[in-house]
Amino acid sequence: MSTKEVTIARIYTLEGHDQLNQALDILHDEEKIQGVTIIRGIAGFGESREIHTSSLLTLSLELPLIIEFYDEPEKVEKAIHTLTSRLDLKHIVSWSAMAFIDTAA
Q: pTM value?
């Protein structure tokens, strides 16, 4: 087993803002990012303090979404720059991590 340094980034956004497909296209086709996961929240709020939630009575199209991706630090930094220059994404965090790679495969 070996390790390599990666950077993990998370973009916090909302459903229904047409950013998800555009962001996925950029990360997959242009930046060729190693791994991406989309997480749909069931409730959340941000800077505006407006609570976004789902219930049986209100099927909101503005549920919280997290676009999480990782790769080599330079690739993640470039991807973040590309995403923020093209899309209205304001809430992005990133941090360093170690990826454990099975070299026996």
A: 0.82
